[in-house]
Amino acid sequence: MSCKSEKKEILAKVNDKKPNIVVIYLDDLGYGDLSSYGATELQTPNIDALAEGGIKFTNGYASSATCTPSRYAFLTGVYPWRNKKARILSGSAPLIISETQQTLPKMLKKQGYQTAIVGKWHLGLGSGNVNWNEKITPGPNEVGFDESYILAATQDRVPTVYIDNGYIEGLDKNDPIQVNYKKNFEGEPTAKSNPEMTTMKWHHGHNNSIVNGIPRIGYMKGGDAAKWSDIDMADHFLQKAQNYVKKHKENPFFLYYAMQQPHVPRTPHPRFVGKSGMGPRGDVILEADWVIGEFVKTLEKEGVLENTLIVFSSDNGPVLNDGYYDDAAEKLGKHDPKGGLRGGKYSLLEAGTRVPFITYWKGTIKPSISDAIVCQIDLLASLAALTGIEESTTDSKELMKTLLGKTDKGRDHLIIEANSKTALRSGDWLMIPPYKGTRFNKKVNIDVGILPKFQLYNLKEDVGQKQNLAEDKPEKLLEMIETFEILRGQKINKFKDN
């Protein structure tokens, strides 16, 4: 069968009844954090069931080694380095997605989908100077989501409240909430001034306002009735996701389920405390696995599992100590969150952006393992094709047949990003240009891959990136440089001072 005929056959099946689409997105989950990806010290049976019943990609990528840029790329189909604002945002940052640009939920809405986000947002809210006591806009609802139930940024940043379609849930108007990322409010305790009020000790950066005994990034005053319960967050978001499915099961829906695990602060529900033997980080990974199992059970119980495409991934690679003393490094034991890769969150090396990537569609996708290079940025164009249209206005590549297991052909080239610095994955090779800066991030104990000289790695033969072949393979290096400069639209010498 020709490629065109096969594509028509896929689309004919889809157009008969458009599939629901669920993207389950974890936060800081590493390539080696799942038993289906080689972990031996952690067992993740529910996520493994998706991998074993679907396609497990061994070369699946986030667009960036940090959260905000990856989420921006996934939802817009645009490389994050094209938007200077696509960096790790504070909880009070303005929205960085333009209300006029194409987004995945906008595209799917035009195709008749009901669209929703449940979980972490971290792409900014409002247009600056947000009044948290009124409707917060623009936000997810203004860039394509019919429904949104979110935390504004991250669990370790203020405001520590849930936002339901632009309104803080449970807010007492007599106790207005105030947020400031530059200075504290008079008389408000912080982790520095009142360490005795904390139940979690900060390591770096997390020494501002204290909520539920946990020191946070940023200052917050008021809003006591609206503050979330950290240990109940996983259950809370699960219930919202389950209720969404029950409410919209009769018609096609797109759910972006953005879970908070295993990002700091790691606050497992008491049911999971101590279950991993690795401290809170291991415990919240087990919690996330259970949550996903319960969510999939809901899809099955509501009769929509066989008509739902599930995409599972993570926004970037792993980090152990990311601001709190929580024994993540001390209790790691034999577990390798990187799965044999080098680097981690914040890094241009492979463990920064190569992450678990699974597609599952019961009865449609045949179980397999794929070495194709795929990236979250490609979901926009690919899901457009799945629903019967062409989307070619962004950096997103149409790889629907790859995601459905109809071909092993993926991307030829991919630009990855970390802290606004970029590198090129092309075929089996990775090239990192020379950059000024510190190679090792001592706070988080991660090699970020920055050197003042070119780096070239053959990932097929050296997945751990132990041997820099830049001097041994000058012709290959030149080829990679030329490709990179064409795709990036700039000469390499422009990057050296970054």
What would you note in describing this structure?
By secondary structure, the chain is α/β, with parallel strands linked by helices. It has 10 helices and 20 strands. It has helices spanning 3-16, 45-53, 67-76, 104-110, 233-248, 280-301, 350-353, 379-386, 400-403, 474-488; strands at residues 20-26, 55-61, 114-120, 147-151, 162-164, 167-168, 178-180, 210-211, 214-215, 219-221, 253-258, 308-314, 357-360, 368-375, 413-418, 421-426, 429-432, 440-441, 446-447, 455-458. It has a 10-stranded mixed beta sheet, sandwiched between helices. Strand 16 and strand 17 (429-432) form a beta hairpin. Helix 5 runs parallel beside helix 6. The longest helix is centred in the middle third of the chain and has 22 residues, at 280-301. The radius of gyration is 22 Å and the shape is globular.
Overall helicity: 10-25%
Main sheet?
10 strands, mixed
**Secondary structural class:** alpha/beta
The overall strand count is 20
Q: What's the number of helices?
A: 10
Which residues sit in consecutive blocks of at least 5 with pLDDT less than 50? 11-15
* Chain-averaged pLDDT: 95
